[in-house]
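[Solved] Which block belongs to which protein?

Original post:
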Amino acid sequence: MSMQWPKLLSRKRLGSNEDPSGSTVRTDFQRDFDRIVFCSAFRRMQDKTQVFPLSGIDYIRTRLTHSLEASSIGRSLGTLVGEQIISRHRLEDFEASDFGDICAAACLAHDIGNPPFGHSGEDAFRHWAMTAEYGQRRVDVLHGSEKEDFLSFEGNAQGFRILTRLQNAANQGGLQLTCATLAAFTKYPRESWLGGSRFDGVSAKKQGFFAADRDLFEEVAETTGMLRREPMRAIWHRHPLSFLVEAADDISYRVIDIEDGFRLGYLSLDEVLALFLPMLSSAGRQQERISRIRDDKGKVEFLRAKVINEAISQAMSCFLDNEQAILEGRFDQPLLSQIPKKAEMDRLIEVAVARIYNAPEVVEIQTAGFQVIGELLERFIQVLDDIADQGEKANARSRMMSRLIPEQFIGADRVPSNDLYTRLLLLTDFVSGMTDSYAVSLYKKLTGISLPGR
């Protein structure tokens, strides 16, 4: 059995019965891109951590700028692959740009579900669910995927929820993106708990959707013809373009985090040259061109562009070489783990971990993020539980604090759901959607560290 490109490129919109657009001026996949750009969750990424939390330096990347750069890489990679796929399979109803636009939209949204403080923020949610005095007791009451959703909280699953439910919440299907874009977005097409079953491959290492959103993903998978890995479990083989989305993200952060590290003084020019030049097949010729660039910043920017271009080329070749295995679900590794320059790309990560990600000022703020996120979750779940259990008899403090939570994250008429899983899920929707600055500001106010207007 094999996935088929015409179905994989489905223009059907999740939650909409309207026929796909017949326009070639602004295609359905370009509309996906635009819908993501204009949604509030995308704008909030301008104040969410990429590597350096709450940085006061304008140059440093945030989740927003990283997503834009990954999207640019994804468009190039998708278009190059699309040219070859269309030729191989004689796909008369599609253009190479369709592949690029799907990848660009999926890349644009790939971090939209990340909570405050980056990946350490995800860890903070898990830590709260496993260890918090009150939160742990509440999570322990749940079972199966409903419990594991919090114990293994995952920004990718939160992202799927944002795109399909939380943005334009009045619409069935949220933003109503095409099923092709949503499938390409979902790098981990599985729920959080699989009944003890274990599955190999990169696509199975995390969950890509919450238990509450399983039906939505099942519709996406069925519409695009993704292959189910086991009949009785909610786990599928990846949509092929998801490999390109993953590669674009990997290329972006591996290369660009080194550039940011240079700009902040963690790495010298010579160290950056030693990392970037081995990636290039024409290193000697590039050194001559570098020598004509006067400032060090310009040299690094020039090399960064060349390294990204080389990585795109190698990722494209790897995908095309393994296309049939990908369509049949027999290939399940990151593309960058199979390219000729794998060792050189891995070296970028090794240096970033040693010299950048673990820099004291980064770790200090990320550690503080654990306190901020944990405290917000712990205080607000007690408030919601009190109101859910006591109704109008809830204490005055709970009623007052609940006013800090938008109605969307409590329930209709500001009445919390009687279902504990739903209450916890809406709370994580609220806290994970905060920007870094807002989370810190609200934490200070709730704990009395600062007062409004002070």
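(Second protein starts here: sequence line, then its structure tokens.)
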Amino acid sequence: MEGSLIKKLSQLLDEQQNIALVTITNSFGSCPRGVGAMMIVDSDGNLVDGTIGGGAVEEKARQDAAECIRRGISKTISYNLNEKAEEESLSMICGGKVDVFIHVFRRQDKLIIAGAGHIADKLYKMAKFLGYSVTILDDRQEMITKDRFPDADELLLGDIPSNLKMVSIDENTNIVIVTHGHKYDAMALETVINSPARYIGMIGSINKVKTCFEILKQKGISEEKLSQVYSPIGIDLGGETPEEISLAIIAEIQAVKYGKEVPPLKNKK
């Protein structure tokens, strides 16, 4: 069974799937399976391969693994396998205890920056420091160069909306719209608003954002979709420099990634 599981794990890693490998690292007393038992769980908590014994302990471990995948963390969790009315106990008659290590494998987080101005210059450096793959788009040849963005993973020169349509966007993708004109911001937002991106943020004042949203509503974009856009962009940290604005943006992206409640500028009246 372990050989088949390892082959499946290798296949899923090659496909860059978001998964967790759950392994029993310690067992005490009577338990369904012993040390070394493994299972693979996907981001929805489904069992992909293997088993750690079935029943309540496997069900709870699958739920915990899915939560770890969502948060992007690996951790050890202990389960008491008894029927005592304790918060940490499971409804099982085994009477033992198991420790499991949940090892999370996730696709690399991606950041797409539409616009290669001052904010992009600071933001991409912060994102690279945090391990993001960064793609930058602009239609100005002098702005989008390797000299300005030496560590960027991809630089796309040309019409921004057209290039956005060619970029791969998934649930690990974050999009920041900071082009050199309000018109281009609206066009970029219209292009990506129905994508599965985890985070879409657009720079701009409250009045500019309101005008942009009205234009998009007239084009059939729903209020629900627009409400999911982080605009004005960033956490309300204060500051006006490109460095300070970039910090507010990357902090908001991180907060969304980990499901943390923070004071976004989009809620500021």
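Accepted answer:
You had them paired correctly. Confirming on the second one: The first helix runs from residue 2 to 14.
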